[in-house]
């Protein structure tokens, strides 16, 4: 039951170019979407989030786009830097579900490699 | 910057043994979580904890699992009788409030032999 899907297990881009990481979801009850970055031997680190009432959120080099009708979100990193090389997880949740207000469903991750 | 700390970083145990994984969430955070990631698979929610009780748990979190906040700082995950399939990276996470993102610890790698 893959409610959150990241269909590309890996992505390789050149330094300075744009990285686009994609994520699809199936549960229309999700109203909150996040991207986490994970380096080896570390826990996931929050990167950026977007609420379902928005279609875009930007923070420096990172922009998340949400297309609710397509149940699709993407993370754009521009310009990409070698230090961005990590596994990126898409996560989704419903802030009113079950009273927990935070249990997230994660995708399997996309390993980004940024080559100098 | 405050962070979530987890100990030990690696725990090896024999099948059937009890293990306790320890976490110190960020001090002013109110919501606490355990997630796990089996090697090569996705990060999976186990349990959430708020106001000294479990607020939600997944199907994975069966009777073999329990959580506790024994004092004002620690948050523990106990597995009563470990199975081989419990081998995974276990991540503790905490958040300040309703609309805050999760902050994860670096994880405990549990190996059940």
What would you report as the Rg of chain A, rounded to the nearest angstrom? Answer: 14 Å
Give helix and strand order of chain A, one letter per element, not per position. Answer: EEEEEEEEEEE
* Residue runs with pLDDT of under 50 for 5 or more positions of chain B: none
Which structural class is indicated by helix and strand composition of chain B?
mainly beta
Poorly predicted runs of chain A are none
Shape label of chain B: globular
Distance between the termini of chain A: 37 Å
Task: Measure the end-to-end span of chain B.
Answer: 36 Å
Oligomer: heterodimer
Note the total helix count of chain B.
0
Structure overview:
With 116 residues, chain A is an all-beta fold. Chain A is 0% helix and 52% strand. Chain A is built from no helices and eleven strands. In chain A, strands 2, 4, 5, 9, 10 and 11 form a six-stranded mixed sheet that branches. Chain A starts with a strand and ends with a strand. With 113 residues, chain B is mainly beta. Chain B has no helices and eleven strands. In chain B, strands 2, 4, 5, 6, 9, 10 and 11 form a seven-stranded mixed sheet that branches. The radius of gyration of chain B is 13 Å and the shape is globular. The model of chain B has no long low-confidence stretch (mean pLDDT 93). Classes of the chains: A mainly beta (116), B mainly beta (113). Chain A binds chain B through residues 34, 36, 41-46, 49, 89, 91, 95, 98-109, and chain B through 4, 6, 31, 33, 35, 41-45, 48, 50, 55-56, 58, 91, 93, 95, 98-99, 101-107.
Secondary structure elements and their pairing?
The complex is a heterodimer of chains A (116) and B (113).
Chain A: E1 4-5, E2 10-14, E3 19-25, E4 32-38, E5 45-51, E6 56-59, E7 62-67, E8 72-77, E9 86-93, E10 105-106, E11 110-115
Parallel strand pairs in A: 2-11
Antiparallel strand pairs in A: 1-3, 3-8, 4-5, 4-9, 6-7, 7-8, 9-10, 9-11
Chain B: E1 5-7, E2 10-13, E3 19-24, E4 31-37, E5 43-50, E6 53-57, E7 65-68, E8 75-79, E9 88-95, E10 103-104, E11 108-112
Parallel strand pairs in B: 2-11
Antiparallel strand pairs in B: 1-3, 3-8, 4-5, 4-9, 5-6, 7-8, 9-10, 9-11
């Amino acid at each position: 039951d893959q409610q959150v899907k990241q269909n590309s297990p890996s992505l390789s881009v050149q330094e300075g170019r744009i990285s686009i990481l994609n994520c699809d979801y199936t549960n229309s009850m999700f109203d909150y979407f996040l991207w986490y970055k994970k380096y080896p031997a570390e826990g996931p680190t929050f990167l950026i989030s977007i609420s379902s009432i928005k279609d875009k959120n930007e923070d420096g080099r990172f922009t998340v786009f949400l297309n609710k009708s397509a149940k699709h979100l993407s993370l754009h990193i521009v310009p990409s830097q070698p230090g961005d090389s990590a596994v990126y997880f898409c996560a989704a949740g419903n802030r009113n579900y079950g009273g927990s207000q935070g249990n997230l469903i994660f995708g399997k991750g996309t390993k980004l490699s940024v080559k100098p | 910057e405050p962070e979530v700390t987890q100990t030990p970083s690696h725990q090896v145990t024999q099948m059937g043994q009890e293990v306790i994984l320890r976490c110190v969430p960020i001090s002013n955070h109110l919501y606490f979580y355990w997630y796990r990631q089996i090697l090569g698979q996705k990060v999976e929610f186990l349990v959430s904890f708020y106001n000294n009780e479990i607020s939600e748990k997944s199907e994975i979190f069966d009777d073999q699992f329990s959580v506790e906040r024994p004092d004002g700082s620690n948050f523990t995950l106990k597995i009563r009788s470990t199975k081989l399939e419990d081998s995974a990276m276990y991540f503790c996470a905490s958040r300040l409030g309703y609309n805050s993102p999760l902050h994860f610890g670096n994880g405990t790698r549990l190996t059940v032999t």
